[in-house]
Amino acid sequence: MRERLEQLKVEALEELQSVTDAKHLDELRVKYQGKKGKLTEILRGMGGLSAEERPVIGQLANEVRDAIDAAVTELSERFEREETERRLASETIDVTLPGRKLPRGAVHPLTRVIEEIEQIFIGMGYQIAEGPEVETDYHNFEALNLPKDHPARDMQDSFYITEDLLMRTQTSPVQVRTMESMNGEVPVKVICPGKVYRRDDDDATHSFQFNQIEGLVIGKNIRMSDLKGTLQHFMRELFGSETEIRMRPSFFPFTEPSAEVDVTYKKKGATEAGWLEVLGCGMVHPRVLEMSGYDPEQYSGFAFGIGVERIAMLKYGVDDIRHFYNNDERFLEQFAHQ
Amino acid sequence: MKVSTQWLSEYVNFEGVTPEELAEKITRAGIEIDEIEHRNQGVQGVVVGYVKHKEKHPDADKLNVCTVDVGSGEDLQIVCGAKNVDAGQKVPVAIVGAVLPGDFKIKKAKLRGVASQGMICSASELGMNDKLLPKDQQEGILVLPENTQIGLPIVQVLGLDDAVLEFDLTPNRSDCLSMIGAAYETAAILGSDVKLPSIDLIEAGGSASEHVNVSIEDKELCSHYAIRYISGVKIGPSPQWMQNRLMAAGIRPTNNVVDITNYVMLECGQPLHAFDADKLGASIGVRSAREGEMLTTLDGQERKLDPSMLLITGDDRPAALAGVMGGLETEVTESTVNIALESAKFSGSSVRKTSRKLGLRSEASLRFEKEVDPSAVNAALDRAALLLARHAGGSVAHGVIEQKGEAIQEKVISLSLPKLNAYLGTDISMLELKAIFARLNFKSADSAQGVLDVQVPTRRGDITRDVDLIEEAARIHGYDNIPTTVIEGPTTPGFYTKSQAVRVAVRRTLTHGGFHEAITYSFTRPENTERFTSFSAGTHAVPLAMPMSEERSVLRTSLVPLLLEAAQYNGNRKNADLSLFEIGKVFHASEQKVTAQPVELTMLGLLINGSRTDGAIGTTARKVDFFDLKGAVERVLEELGLEAEFRADSPDGFHPGRSASLYLTGAQDKRVGVMGQLHPQLQRDYDLDDTYAAEICLDELYERAVPEIEYRDLPRYPSAQRDIAVVVDLEVEAGALIGAVRESAGELLQDVRVFDVYTGDRVAEGKKSVALSLTYRHPERTLTDEEVAAAHQNAVERLEQTFAAELRK
């Protein structure tokens, strides 16, 4: 019996060597280890063994079975692996073909700049004020200390509709309307973004329609140094934390003192940052406060205004203002980054 | 204002400061210097020469051979082609080794066989602006005054070694429309003193009152009018140095009298006018023009006058437009001998109105409009008289003939130092403050504790209240020295209002859905306001009073035409397959002739055309249709927590069978939007293929919108789904079937939707089969089959009754 078991082991392992597929393997497994297999057949003769021989032969039989099992398992795993590899190979795709695209749309670059600035000021506790685009002469000019016949009205040529109505030339009338609606209450902290219109021949840097954002703060003890601090923070949020600002004295009828603000800015291709004029500002003129119901001896305020197109041109390197209004899809889609 | 630094240095010392440094300092203190013009365009080695002889060139008719003394001891032989060259002239000579503008080097040359040791130059060869040259110097070589010293560098003679600073003045700083004003500004910035020009006038001859008298009709319009009488002038060119300075300032020299009036205007900021006294007459008046009066001004134009214009008259005849321009008849000419020299203060707004009305602006009107310094009237008059005596040989009669209103007092403004520091956020001391006003040449004196009384010179008419003084102090102190601080006091919350949040949400939704945001112009052509009138019906478009073009002559009444034009623009550039949207205002007036502000509505416009594909291989592009746009509109509304009903009522401008109006569920009498395929006729007009557009009035959505998220519990019990297919007439709208199901299926119905519509062989002609899927659910328990069947039966019966629907099994 011992010899038969030894021989079976040799025979089975030899035969398993020649197996090439899973089906044949299964047949051999049944042939040797099935209920009617060769090993079972041999073990049926165990009954005729002596009590001393039985455990020895039993152990040998187990060894033979384990050896065959191990060989079968190894082969089976190999065949499975090979089968998977074959299947994967047949399923290979060209990963360089185009993907199925999600829709991709762009917020207009001018809106992007406006929203970015709105977020900066919302973060500083400002609200967003809005007003009509067709304004009265009073709100657009007179309440801003620009009486009729004032020489400073030359600074901006306007689109009039009637003698008293015009397309607003600045978003400052929204400040006036905000002050009027506050009935002398403080604090006022708003920015006013929106379209404005000035008679101008369109070219690469001029457009008769453009966007402005103005800011207005009124309260007790508002100082020019607060204006400077606010604008420094604003410019650093917008252009990066390294940005420096400087103020230069200037003139606007509705502020006193008035200033132009330059920021350090590195132009495309430049090696060093230079000063670039980006906004106008000042302390709200006492006449303006008076006209809109604030006592200038009690309250003070500051105001500033910035051109959205100019900022967008700087931020994105756009060299022609007309692109913003042509709505060429090839232009718009470049601003689709979220 | 062009400020010659050479001239400026006569009044204020800035030795050691380069023009560039000076420009930077002035700019930082508030007056922007746009440009620094170096008058020398590259002239080197050109000197004054004296033409001793002139002979014809032996071989060239047009050339002359000149012998020229340039003070070097040895005469030069120079060939010159200019017609006007002649013996006895002083001329600019570019000697061998000299350089002319454009890096043109002068070498020894032979012209037609004759050696030439240099070149006699014209003014333009010296880089001078032709337009500013006196007329007789615009052609040929430049002939210099006889007394010019031989051998002097021409750069010095013509004042070319000068840098001119272009002051870009803001409207408040008209005080710097004069050299003296510029000098005060420079001195304040540098901390130096101002030296004023001499007005030590010697009067001679008789009294001026023997020759002229003056009367002013309205002292509101002319608060001061002064005349000096100067006899025996000899008209000729003004001195070279004066011409140089005029040219540096951008004014063309004319003759000594005119040049002197211009020179003094530049110097003091006070415009002057010289009349030929013999043509003017003795009685000089200042009065308003009478209807129908005419005046030919110096530019040769005959002007029709009206009573809004202020005149200077001679013996009651119009002689000049006050402060704007003189008359031709009383002009100073070569034969003029006696002069009535005017210096006056006219009302700025009167001059401005006249100048506007006639479209006539001059150096004088520019200054009067901004109000000249009232105390400069007599000073300028005396200064000009002095120069006329000195450079035109005139003798100045005794006395000034003048009329004036109340004497002008210098303003004194009290400035509180604590207020100044609180206003600026600075810590300036009283001592520093006094020093600042001393630099500005403003007198100041302590009044109460911490209060300074500042006397404002009349030249600074822009300073009227304490904040104006605070600005002066701040800019001299330096804006750089103002600290940066944060606002003190309670913090305030910043946020978007609901309508602002809605617009942000709409933008996000649409861009995530592949739409690009457009921004179009608010001005459009009139035809565009006659289309897509759903929201503007019964209103009027708003025209601009003076449009720049017909294309942009009226305010838009709908966004759709502008989006169509954007689509057309893109189409012309082969950008097909557009998805565009715009959020912007449209303008509707209630009156034909606008008198009040129009209604401004904030609209959302959408446009799609072309095809859509996801870009993957094997998926074919699909043409967009009504339902692509409807889906976008529904998605926007969904984002805002809104639902709309779409009614096929053929809104204006759209394909009548492929368009709808939107009504918000729950507010069904108010149209909030329109959408559809563009009417085929309009598609042709705008040169577009099938295009779909929508316009929604956002103002109508704000109030009902729910842009915030509201969480609902998840359902705990399963739902039951039942489908129905019914055959109905073709005209029956799916929306009507859904409505009927909703009304009849009871509270258990959660949702109903159409999932198929079939027309064809398997249904009768004129009929269609519509398949609906109904979902039932009870929030608190699992439904029984019987409950669902009962509800479902109600729905089926309603469809059968209302639409004669036939149930398909």
Automatic annotation (TrEMBL), chain B:
The UniProt catalytic activity note for this protein reads: tRNA(Phe) + L-phenylalanine + ATP = L-phenylalanyl-tRNA(Phe) + AMP + diphosphate + H(+)
The UniProt note on the cofactor reads as follows: Binds 2 magnesium ions per tetramer.
Q: Which residues form the FDX-ACB domain?
A: 715-808
Source superkingdom: Bacteria
| Residues holding Mg(2+) | D462, D468, E471, E472
Q: What's the Enzyme Commission number for this chain?
A: 6.1.1.20
Q: Which GO terms describe its molecular function?
A: ligase activity
- Cite the TRNA-binding domain residue spans from the record: 40-155
**What are the UniProt keywords, alphabetically?**
Aminoacyl-tRNA synthetase, ATP-binding, Cytoplasm, Ligase, Magnesium, Metal-binding, Nucleotide-binding, Protein biosynthesis, RNA-binding, tRNA-binding
Query: Entry's PROSITE patterns?
Result: B5, FDX_ACB, TRBD
- The B5 domain is annotated at 408-484
Q: Where in the cell is it found?
A: Cytoplasm
| InterPro entries in UniProt | aa-tRNA-synth_II/BPL/LPL, B3/B4_tRNA-bd, DNA-bd_dom_put_sf, Fdx_antiC-bd, Fdx_antiC-bd_sf, NA-bd_OB-fold, Phe-tRNA-ligase_IIc_bsu, Phe-tRNA-ligase_IIc_bsu_bact
**SMART domains xref list:** B3_4, B5, FDX-ACB
Q: Name any cofactors this protein relies on.
A: Mg(2+)
Q: How does it assemble?
A: Tetramer of two alpha and two beta subunits.
Q: Which NCBIfam families match?
A: pheT_bact (TIGR00472), YtpR (NF045760)
Recorded family membership = Belongs to the phenylalanyl-tRNA synthetase beta subunit family. Type 1 subfamily.
Q: What is this protein called?
A: Phenylalanine--tRNA ligase beta subunit
Q: Which gene encodes it?
A: pheT
